[in-house]
Amino acid sequence: xxxxxxxxxxxxxxxxxxxxxxxxxxxxxxxxxxxxxxxxxxxxxxxxxxxxxxxxxxxxxxxxxxxxxxxxxxxxxxxxxxxxxxxxxxxxxxxxxxxxxxxxxxxxxxxxxxxxxxxxxxxxxxxxxxxxxxxxxxxxxxxxxxxxxxxxxxxxxxxxxxxxxxxxxxxxxxxxxxxxxxxxxxxxxxxxxxxxxxxxxxxxxxxxxxxxxxxxxxxxxxxxx
Length: 225
What we know:
Elements (H helix, E strand, L loop, with lengths): L2 H17 L1 E11 L2 E10 L4 E14 L3 E10 L4 E10 L1 H16 L4 H9 L3 E13 L2 H22 L4 E2 L4 E6 L4 E14 H16 L4 H9 L4
Parallel strand pairs: 6-7, 6-8
Antiparallel strand pairs: 1-2, 1-9, 2-3, 3-4, 4-5, 6-9
């Protein structure tokens, strides 16, 4: 095969990759004391499929924080690639907050970059159902109204930044004369790979605009001094 054909094939492959989409399905299910979080990622026209699940979330105590189990599955062959247990403690939250402050301080107008990037994300599906019961009919009705208002406010804020391409399916089901709580959220998001690449390049340029910015980002992200 001659070089022009090889170069042409590479160009076509790069174009197809850039034109493909990254699709994300985010699902959170809460039933009484049981939690289940699932994130499905598809890209390269379905050739690359990954699933991240957190099937176990357990609050230990104030000092030990929240324990959880994380699983990463290759959906193409259903092989478990990672299975780890970890804890989310107040110390880790504090460290993450401090690291975030360092990153924000070493990036030129990070908020502008984030808004521009989120504007390229499309929401193609949204489902949120909540069952709630306080034990008293009147209090349950009042709580149902509060949850409706909270959901409406949150969605109004979220879709100021993300393109909504479907009508959200929202339900709040009162469980009168019962004490119960269950909630299920499913969100389907999509973004072109091309926009992700461009966002990464723009972020790099914004970091380089700040003196020492790249070094600080590397020290935080890769835990180097």
